[in-house]
Structures are given as C-alpha cells and as structure tokens.
C-alpha cells in the first residue's frame, strides 16, 4: 500500500516529543529530496522498526542530538531503495556488547537505570529479516550510536498517486485530526 514517507516521519517524531523534551534532546530529520512523496510497501513494519530505533536513541541520549536521515538509490529492478540512519550522541554501546543487543531480553547497560524489556532490537531484527535486510551498527562508548538499514519499496504503484491530494494534518486541542 502506498504511503507518504514524510508524513510518517513527522508523525513518528511527534509521538516522541515528550521523551525528547524530557531528555533535552534535539531531533533532526533529513529526507533526500529525490525521494518521491509516495512509496509502496509495508508501512506498519517500517513504523515498528523506526519507533524502536528512534525510541532507543531518545532513551539513551541526554542533552544531545538525534539525527535521522533517509537517502535513496534505485535498485536493479527499478524499485526504490531507501537507506535509513538513526544516529545519536548518547551513552554508546561498548564494542564487545554490540552483538548481544539484538538478543531477546538483553540490556547491556545493567548498572544504569533504563527502562525497557530488551525486546525492541530483537523485534527490529526479525522485521528486517522479513525484508531480507540487515541492521548495521556503529557505536562508541560515551560518544553515541548509529544504526542503519535499507528497505526496497515498490515504485510502480506510486505513479497513480501523484495527483491524489492527501488531507492536511492539523492539531486541534492536542488531538491529531485529519481535515
Ligand atoms: P525495549 O526496547 O524492549 O523497551 P530496550 O530498549 O532496553 O527495551 P532494545 O531496544 O532491544 O531493548 O535494546 C537492547 C539494549 O541495547 C538496550 O537496553 C541498551 O543497552 C542498548 N541500546 C540500544 N540502542 C541503544 C542506543 N541508541 N544507545 C545506547 N544503547 C543502546
Ligand atoms: Mg528499545
């Protein structure tokens, strides 16, 4: 099903607004202009992946920055490949623990009080398996973490949507309303 990637990113980041301000973080989003308004694919899986990764970035970062970027390349079959990177300036993950974080119920900062069940990244990994994709990590203790993945979406079906107008998003009395 076709979805608007920019609207998705705006809504996901909005849902982390409380966490972001609690931890005094700045969130930057960069979306390559050549990415079309609509891509076609499983938006539910993509939002689950992003919610987990952005949620982690917000949780493990204080007084810092979370940079989200989406770039693109054409894949061989003419479909569109999107490359996502979620980078933070948070606590980081020691190199010898970086493999373990994808295991279920595993939290590698045992001495510090961070809430969670240790399931998020295990779920992300399973969802990316379904897309035949992988999660790449670069992290330095005390400096920050960067996680990236790529997904291929269908380009063909979006052409039909070029002229379709989506209702604008407005916020009315703190509720998200479509008008
Ligand atoms: P849950 O996601 O189930 O609420 P969680 O966030 O602790 O709990 P995961 O998302 O699976 O679990 O992450 C596993 C562990 O990897 C975390 O507990 C944390 O130790 C480490 N981790 C994940 N993302 C980051 C990050 N951006 N910065 C620092 N550490 C991270
Ligand atoms: Mg998590």
TrEMBL record:
Residues 1-155 form the Histidine kinase domain. This is histidine kinase. The lineage of its organism: Bacteria, Pseudomonadati, Bacteroidota, Flavobacteriia, Flavobacteriales.
């Amino acid at each position: 099903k076709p979805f608007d990637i920019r609207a998705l990113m705006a809504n996901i980041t909005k849902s982390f607004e409380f966490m972001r301000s609690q931890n005094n973080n700045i969130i930057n989003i960069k979306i390559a202009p050549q990415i079309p308004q609509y891509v076609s694919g499983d938006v539910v899986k993509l939002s689950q992946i992003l919610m987990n990764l952005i949620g982690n970035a917000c949780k493990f970062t204080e007084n810092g920055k979370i940079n989200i970027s989406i770039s693109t390349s054409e894949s061989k079959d003419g479909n569109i490949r999107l490359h996502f990177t979620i980078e933070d300036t948070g606590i980081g993950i020691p190199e010898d623990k970086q493999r373990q974080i994808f295991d279920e119920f595993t939290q590698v900062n045992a001495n510090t009080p961070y809430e969670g069940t240790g399931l998020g990244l295990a779920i992300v990994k399973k969802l990316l398996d379904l897309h035949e994709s992988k999660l790449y990590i670069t992290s330095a203790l005390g400096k920050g973490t960067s996680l990236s993945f790529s997904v291929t979406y269908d380009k063909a079906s979006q052409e039909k949507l070029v002229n379709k107008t989506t209702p604008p998003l407005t916020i009315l009395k703190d509720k998200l309303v479509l008008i």
